[in-house]
């Protein structure tokens, strides 16, 4: 009786938080559930699965779970094969031009492949933002891979086609479609009755619709024409996702249970802990170890997480663009009885920090811009989204996933090995990387007109980058076998260092800013190195006028 009484306030907190989530993240509709010890302790659906058709959002509404598919791809693989490396020959076949050994199947599943993400690379081939991206297009982009951006097993980078390659290799090996493989190895075994492979993303069979927009500006149906498979192709209802979490709990005491095998700790080749394995992110919330993954496409955001120690699962499905991961974390904290601390508002500061300024990662070609974000905060622009860091000392700042330290090189001994002059050492444990950032002058570009011209990338099937000057402002655009991409205005960071914006792309999360690092020979521009976090070190040489 005591256990029952003590659970009521907790369940009441969770139910209240579910209603708060619906209010805090407004949009056409949503569905959430919290499970404890294999039982649903709270669940809530609201709004509409389709505003136009007036279809209510229910627990049986199909939903694009997008990248959450990756764990089901790995579940299928681990259930079918004692040794997944049996798929290696089929992976190699799909990378015919790769000049080095291909990544192993396990390295693909752990996002340690070294491949460049094909959704980012597609933009360099001139893909239209809302255009069709067919299986043939996918095959050609992947087959065009010539090099890797790091040695497999040594680092981490999120790469969607890792899981597409796995699902297509399973099709080749088995003679079955990926839809049939999912049904046989996952859906039937976990009682996911409505889950399907919905590879073509323009519509779902029950009419559920994803929406772009805001409460203030209104919502409209998102346009998607991508064909996905093992990377993000599944659709499932809230009921299906509940069945998955219950299956996980049923096998909790079996060390060889499917989810236990998927969620074992993962390492890099040097033995350091890795943040990702078999389609699952490993992390912590309020000090508790969790496995989790989100999913996103224009109009769709979802997140699921599982805490094995607490036997707790949280599912969030939005058919709009609100941050499902934040909603899932708030429900997790509601279960614990904790309140999330509100973020402090940045306060203006007039004191420059040693880390502030413009820096260049010469290994990847990425720029790093560090600016003040309050008296005790810095903002780092390096990955797709800016990161907020806490200032620890005048030379040190850090966040959960990154630490940056300013080094005064002139204090080094003359015979010491390493860089001279001031620099930054950036440590990113989740990527297993120690990064050297050198200061970059923020002086103006000598003559922007020198950059105007056409550049071509041999690595990417003769992809072209055109730079024009319109009224004295530089614009650039990519073109290739996927079409002619739109022109975007370039922004100067420093001499021969610019950014090309990519705020929208085929996939939900765009590459963000591409760094353009122009290189000279005999004082004349002869090539540009183009990089984003998902696709680094692509060299475009300048064509003769």
From TrEMBL:
Give the species this sequence originates from.
Bombella favorum
The record's InterPro entries line, in alphabetical order, gives: AmpC-like, Beta-lactam-related, Beta-lactam/transpept-like, D_amino_pept/lipop_sf, DAP_B_dom
Identification of the protein by name: Aminopeptidase
Name all D-aminopeptidase domain ranges.
350-541
Quote one Gene Ontology molecular function term.
aminopeptidase activity
**Which keywords are on file for this protein?**
Aminopeptidase, Hydrolase, Protease
Beta-lactamase-related domain location: 25-329
């Amino acid at each position: 009786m005591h256990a029952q009484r003590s659970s009521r306030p907790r369940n009441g907190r969770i139910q209240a938080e579910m209603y708060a989530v619906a209010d805090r993240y407004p949009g056409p509709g949503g569905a959430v559930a919290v499970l404890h010890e294999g039982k649903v302790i709270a669940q809530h659906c609201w709004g509409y699965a389709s505003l136009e058709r007036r279809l209510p959002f229910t627990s049986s509404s199909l939903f694009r779970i997008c990248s959450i598919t990756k764990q089901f791809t790995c579940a299928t693989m681990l259930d079918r094969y004692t040794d997944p490396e049996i798929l290696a020959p089929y992976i190699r076949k799909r990378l015919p031009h790769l000049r080095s050994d291909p990544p192993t199947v396990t390295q693909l599943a752990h996002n340690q492949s070294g491949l460049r993400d094909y959704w980012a690379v597609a933009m360099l081939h001139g893909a239209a933002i809302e255009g069709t991206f067919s299986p043939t297009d996918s095959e050609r982009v992947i087959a065009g891979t010539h090099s890797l951006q790091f040695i497999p097993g040594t680092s981490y980078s999120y790469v969607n086609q890792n899981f597409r390659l796995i699902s297509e290799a399973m099709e080749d090996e088995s003679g079955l479609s990926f839809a049939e493989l999912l049904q046989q190895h996952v859906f039937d075994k976990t009682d996911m009755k409505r889950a399907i492979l919905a590879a073509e993303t323009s519509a779902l069979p029950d009419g559920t619709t994803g929406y772009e927009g805001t409460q203030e500006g209104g919502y409209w149906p998102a346009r998607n024409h991508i064909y996905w498979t093992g990377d993000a192709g599944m659709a499932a209802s809230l009921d299906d996702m509940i069945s998955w979490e219950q299956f996980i709990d049923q096998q909790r005491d079996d060390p060889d249970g499917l989810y236990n095998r998927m969620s074992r700790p993962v390492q890099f080749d040097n033995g350091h802990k890795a943040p990702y394995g078999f389609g699952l992110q490993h992390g912590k919330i309020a000090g508790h170890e969790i496995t989790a993954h989100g999913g996103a496409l224009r109009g769709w955001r979802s997140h699921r997480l599982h805490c094995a120690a607490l036997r707790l699962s949280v599912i969030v499905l939005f058919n709009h663009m609100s941050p499902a991961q934040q909603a899932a974390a708030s429900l997790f904290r509601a279960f614990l009885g904790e309140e999330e601390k509100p973020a402090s508002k940045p306060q203006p500061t007039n004191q420059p920090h040693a880390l502030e300024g413009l820096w260049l990662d010469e290994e990847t070609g990425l720029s790093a811009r560090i600016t003040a974000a309050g008296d005790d905060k810095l903002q780092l622009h390096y990955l797709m989204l800016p990161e907020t860091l806490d200032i620890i000392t005048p030379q040190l700042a850090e966040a959960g996933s990154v630490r940056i330290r300013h080094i005064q090189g002139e204090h080094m001994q003359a015979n010491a090995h390493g860089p001279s002059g001031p620099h930054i050492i950036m440590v990113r444990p989740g990527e297993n990387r120690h990064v050297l950032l050198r200061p970059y002058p923020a002086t103006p570009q000598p003559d922007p007109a020198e950059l105007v011209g056409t550049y071509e990338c041999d690595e990417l099937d003769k992809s072209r980058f055109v730079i024009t000057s319109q009224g004295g402002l530089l614009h650039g655009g990519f073109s290739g076998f996927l079409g002619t991409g739109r022109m975007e205005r370039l922004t100067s960071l420093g001499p021969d260092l610019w950014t090309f914006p990519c705020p929208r792309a085929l996939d939900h999360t765009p590459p963000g800013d591409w760094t353009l690092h122009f290189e000279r020979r005999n004082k004349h521009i002869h090539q540009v190195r183009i990089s984003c976090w998902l696709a680094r070190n692509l060299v475009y040489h300048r064509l003769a006028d």
